[in-house]
């Protein structure tokens, strides 16, 4: 969603209520046997990895070459960061969040905290001497990483004193309009789940489908199309 908003690209978005096991419906399983979200259906093509989805949409429709450069070297740097996000950061999120969300655990285990903080140190090192992870300009890699790090920050806060460069980057990302429209609502909902174990207003999630442009025009709130 942040990628779409950063690129100013619209498509029809349909919310799937995982609390009601809608992701296990025959229609979803037929599209994605892994039963994960998001899913992109473009005619006969079906993708179910957020990095692949973002890259596909950007390759076809994005006119901003800073978000997704066309030269092979710069594109490889973004691929490399995508792999770090999916292969390192996201597993840390799962190991921290799933016991709280699904196993009645009420805190992040010390070893998991240590591993997340080690990842923060790696990110701090990657950012040294540059404004953005991919170099001079913000790219889709920064958007992918902030999606995961902002969520991890709910579980293991990024210490401003220990990781000043990472903290500064997070603040700059949080000031982007796409962060508000594409990330903030879900982040607040996740925080509520971690704190209370439930969501107060499930009915709001049922208002679908909606369009990307409508979501952006309402500051990220879910509204009827």
TrEMBL record:
Pfam families cross-referenced by the UniProt entry: GST_C, GST_N
Chain residue ranges for the region called Disordered:
205-225
Reading the lineage from the top rank, the first entry is Eukaryota
The residues covered by the GST C-terminal domain are 71-198
**SUPFAM superfamilies with a match to the protein in the record:** GST C-terminal domain-like, Thioredoxin-like
| Listed InterPro entries | Glutathione-S-Trfase_C-like, Glutathione-S-Trfase_C_sf, Glutathione_S-Trfase, Glutathione_S-Trfase_N, GST_C, Thioredoxin-like_sf
Ranges for the GST N-terminal domain?
1-65
Q: Which family does it belong to?
A: Belongs to the GST superfamily.
Q: What PANTHER family does the record point to? A: GLUTATHIONE S TRANSFERASE D10, ISOFORM A-RELATED (PTHR43969)
- Subunit: Homodimer.
Q: What protein name does the entry list?
A: Glutathione S-transferase 1-like
**Biological source species:** Bicyclus anynana (Squinting bush brown butterfly)
Q: Which gene encodes it?
A: LOC112044849
């Amino acid at each position: 969603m942040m990628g779409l908003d950063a690129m100013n690209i619209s498509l029809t978005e349909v919310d799937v209520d995982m609390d009601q096991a809608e992701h296990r419906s025959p229609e979803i399983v037929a599209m994605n046997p892994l039963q994960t979200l998001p899913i992109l259906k473009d005619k006969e093509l079906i993708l179910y990895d957020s990095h692949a989805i973002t890259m596909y949409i950007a390759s076809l429709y994005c006119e901003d070459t800073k978000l997704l450069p066309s030269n092979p070297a710069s594109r490889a740097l973004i691929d490399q960061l995508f792999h770090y996000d999916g292969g390192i950061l996201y597993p840390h999120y799962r190991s921290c969040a799933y016991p709280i969300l699904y196993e009645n655990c009420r805190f992040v285990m010390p070893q998991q905290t240590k591993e997340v903080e080690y990842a923060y140190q790696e990110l701090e090192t990657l950012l040294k001497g540059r404004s953005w992870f991919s170099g001079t300009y913000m790219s889709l890699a920064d958007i992918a990483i902030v999606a995961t790090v902002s969520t991890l920050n709910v579980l293991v806060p990024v210490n401003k004193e220990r990781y000043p460069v990472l903290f500064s980057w997070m603040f700059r990302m949080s000031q982007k309009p796409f962060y508000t429209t594409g990330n903030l609502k879900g982040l607040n909902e996740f925080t509520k789940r971690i704190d209370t174990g439930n969501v107060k207003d499930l009915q709001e999630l049922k208002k679908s489908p909606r369009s990307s442009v409508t979501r952006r025009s309402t500051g990220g709130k879910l509204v009827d199309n």
